[in-house]
Amino acid sequence: MHTVVLTKGVPDFREGQVSFDEDGHLERGKTPTVMNPNDQFALEAALQTRVRHGGNVSVMSMGPPGYKEVLQEAMESVYADDLYLVSDREMAAADTWATAITLSAAIENLDEMPDIIFAGFKTADGETGHTGPQANWCLDMPLVTHVISLDIDEEERTLRAKRLVEGDIEEIETVEVSLPAFVVTDPEFVPSYRSAGERLTLKDLRAATTERAPDYEDYLTVWDHADINVDPDYIGLDGSPTIVSSVDPIPKAPAEREATMVEPEDVDGMQEVLEAMQSAVGGDAAAAEGD
After folding, report:
1. Which residue among 71, 125, 261, 284 is least crowded, i.e. fewest CB within 10 A of its CB?
2. What is the rounded CA–CA span in Å between residue 5 and residue 141?
3. Domains of the chain, with CATH numbers?
């Protein structure tokens, strides 16, 4: 069974300030990037499918050359048999619609259509959750979103999934669709390995992907817009109907507590600190003083 997982790089805010150009577009080539956290659940769903049904897991992303490392992260942190990066300048500054067109064209450029395409719920930067469903619209497949568990019947070529209704953890429904299908996993997705055999297979696959990851470029295919036969007018900034009007900096959170500086030689001040600490833990300051 062939599955494709769509992933994306998002700014790593731990590395400091994110870079924007004068038009308000994120400069991804100048911004430290990591794999979108929600995409891990899509990778876990693909790995579960690989364990139970064999086959191949391809991980695909659209972005600058630096996204190679995002794909390596996907291979190392969860699983991948091979990797695809769709990248050139014509794709720069794409919104979700132009991105979906590009990714769907890349999927159609594979040797064969995958049985299942997985995508994460939404990205940590855009927060729209549009790209997966829009790519699915281009591919005209059955779509199941907010998936928290799934099973596949290979003989019947069907996928049965439990999903959250409108993202509500209190309401769950079961749906069944025919393959090929497009699945958007929810952050509540939890993989399930029911037998010792499945758990042993999982262990072997995890070891294999960890071994592959340092040499990930041996498993990487890079395509530009000509390789996937898309018109530059329909991708990148030219193909993006979204207009960025402005970008506001993230405000610094106000301090919620006040701090009082006490010098070590300030006996009275240190005594007050000790009494406050003893009170907080329910002890007795006088007993501590006697010690």
Report:
1. 261
2. 15
3. 2-234 (3.40.50.620), 258-291 (no CATH)
